[in-house]
Design goal:
Radius of gyration: 14 Å
Strand content: under 5%
Oligomer: single chain
Order of helices and strands: HHHHHHH
Structural class: mainly alpha
Helix content: over 70%
Distance between the termini: 26 Å
Length: about 120
């Protein structure tokens, strides 16, 4: 919750750092698919915070990592979220058409997915 609040306050660097830390958090006995889900979900939030502060340097590598972990998650959303991050990269470069394509590829459900994607497309 702290990372969400930091992000909402515009403290993107602190939010990104905390989301990234949470993404690597593992509890003893955690199922591999659960770890993958957490890794992808928190990484998506970290990527959005980084993009909000204008730092997209590490996002291509993060998107690749998210794709790898997403394939280990049972959730369709997690399997597609790396496209959200690729959309952020294209948007930062001013390539709106490519960004929109990636954002669309990231959507599994318009109502229960990552609604930041819907906002970006709007």
């Amino acid at each position: 919750m702290e990372a969400v609040v930091l992000d909402a306050m515009g403290r993107y660097r602190a939010a990104a750092a905390l989301f990234d830390s949470i993404a690597h958090w593992r509890v003893a006995g955690m199922a591999p698919s659960q770890y993958a889900r957490n890794r992808v979900w928190m990484s998506a939030h970290a990527a959005n915070a980084r993009a909000a502060m204008g730092d997209t340097t590490g996002l291509p590598e993060l998107a690749d990592t998210m794709a790898a972990y997403g394939s280990r998650s049972g959730l369709g959303r997690d399997q597609r979220l790396h496209h959200e991050v690729r959309g952020l990269i294209f948007a930062a470069r001013g390539d709106d058409n490519a960004a929109m394509g990636e954002y669309r590829a990231s959507i599994r459900s318009l109502t229960t997915g990552y609604t930041r994607t819907n906002v970006a497309l709007a």
